[in-house]
Amino acid sequence: MKKKFIPGETYVSVSGKVFDKEEINNAIEAAKDGWWTEGRFALKFEEKFKKYLGVKHVSLVNSGSSANLVALAALTSDLFGEKRLKAGDEFVTTSVAFPTTVNPGIQYRLKPVFVDVGVGDLNIDMAKIEKAITKKTRLIMLAHTLGFPFDLTEVMRLVKKYDLWLIEDCCDALGTKYGNKYVGQYGHIATFSFYPAHHITMGEGGAVITNNRLIHKAIRRFRDWGRDCWCGTGQDNSCGRRFKWKLGELPYGYDHKYIYSELGYNLKLTDFQAAIGVAQLKKLPGFIKKRRANYKKLYEFFKKYEEYFVLMREDEKTEVSYFGFPIVVKSGAPFTRNEMSEYLEKNKVGTRNVFTGNLLRHPAYVDLRKSFRLVEGMENADAIMNNAFWIGVWPGIDGVRMKYMKMVITKFLKTQGIF
Q1: 127 belongs to a structural domain
Q2: Catalytic center residues
Q3: Which CATH number does the domain housing residue 255 bear?
Q4: Residue 44 is inside which H or E element, if any?
Q5: What is d(CA 271, CA 167) in angstroms, rounded to the nearest whole number?
Q6: Are 175 and 280 in contact (CB under 8 A)?
Q7: What's residue 81's pLDDT?
Q8: Half-sphere exposure of residue 1: CA atoms within 13 angstroms, side-chain side
Q9: Which residues pair with 392 in a beta bridge?
Q10: DSSP alpha helices (H): ranges in 192-310?
Q11: Whole-prediction pTM
């Protein structure tokens, strides 16, 4: 039950979860089942998620970050022969990213090639992306930042021209459409997050999707300990040959459930999480509608002050499922990003920077930077690092909260002598 909003006392968070008794009842039902690991609710969610997105294969994992790890790991499998990703291969990405969009490539000893972004959409600069591609390039791995899709027409042209893999990180973009198709339907693999800040939540959780049967097989291997067996949780002998395999240097007939063909992980989720997700997925269309309505209200409000702010541009081919409302403070404004965000936070309006800003400036990456390749400068990434932030549009922001947010922003602008 939502608490009463008291202006100036109740914090307006940038994100959060909206739920009712259905999520609670589902979780209780999962508990009563006594199974608790991935089970019937996970299967139900995967089937409904496949139907929603119009894809063939869905694998649930324990987070969006794990989804990115599994997605990249899957492409290193021997299942793909000479096309598999190998140490030393290059992948194209951007420095305005959440770390775990980039980290799996580094962890698998691929070489990241960083391209700058556009300030007006926070996505990779399409005028520079082809310059990043060499004979060593094997993969493009990018996120649809804050729900705004990157130019999939151009990216897909490059994927086909240079025979590259594409992983779409859709963690911020569940429900976004590009050219009448959901993002995630374009790449070889796509990933989603169900953390509480995202469009739907399981508390923790994520998903990896693909339309390719062989890729799906590799995803399941890496997700499920690296085992060769494809039986679902609680299943035995799906292949009908459980004790008739001869793989590696194992003796003939070694139990297929305990044969390992990859250096894998255990990244599955619990059925409690999936049970909550089943209820959340029903609410997704309404959540997206509310996010769009809140975004529109904020856009109309900030449009009056474009002298001081860069607002996001949208392609006519897109229908965005907004994660948040990004704002870039222009260099000529009489205030800084920090001054504005600190004022909003002091007055109980939540703000967040645009993730890492420029990832390459962070302590974990400074010493690694000499081993990366950068395509020209990262001026726009630095501008976002210094001048950009976002505020919430999630469904928990109702009329009174929206009114309060606008009031606080207006007061800040008055302190800067703008009126």
Answers
A1: yes
A2: 198
A3: 3.40.640.10
A4: helix 40-53
A5: 27
A6: no
A7: 97
A8: 2
A9: none
A10: 213-223, 271-302
A11: 0.96
Q: What is the span of the domain harbouring residue 145? A: 21-274
Count of Cβ atoms closer than 10 Å to residue 330 Cβ: 14
- 304 neighbors 417 (Cβ within 8 angstroms): no
Residues 6+ apart with CB under 8 A from 304: none
Per-position DSSP letters for 237-249, written without gaps between them: -TTS-TT----TT
Kindly calculate the radius of gyration of the chain based on its CA atoms and give it in whole angstroms: 23
Q: Which residue type sits at 125?
A: D
Spatial CA neighbour of 111 closest among 139, 144, 82, 147:
139
Whether residues 318 and 258 fall in one domain: no
- Which ranges of 188-233 does DSSP label H, i.e. alpha helix? 213-223
Alpha-carbon distance values, 46 to 37, 171, 208, 394 (Å): 15, 16, 10, 24
Residues 266 and 288 occupy one common structural domain: no
* Amino acid (one-letter) located at 197: A
Which residues of the chain are under the pLDDT cut of 70?
1-2
225 neighbors 31 (Cβ within 8 angstroms)? no
CB 52 within 8 A of CB 85: no
Place of tokens 């009031």: 407
Rounded to an integer, what distance in angstroms lies between the CA atom of residue 318 and that of residue 85? Answer: 31
Number of domains the chain is built from: 2
Helices first, then strands: H and E counts in the chain: 11, 15
- Residue 414 tokens read as 């008055």
> What pLDDT shows up at residue 1?
55
Tokens representing 158?
Answer: 């490059």
Q: Which of 406, 195, 199, 404 is nearest to 290 (CA)?
A: 199
Q: What is the pLDDT of residue 3?
A: 79
Give the Cα separation of 111 and 119 in Å (integer).
25
C-alpha span between 103 and 254 (Å, rounded): 36
Q: Please list, in sequence order, all residues whose beta carbon lies within 8 angstroms of the beta carbon of residue 302, skipping any fewer than 6 positions away.
A: 309, 311, 327
Sheet holding 137-143, edge to edge: 57-61, 206-210, 189-193, 165-169, 137-143, 90-94, 111-115, 373-375
Confirm if 89 and 138 have CB atoms less than 8 A apart.
yes
Residue 3 lies in a domain: no
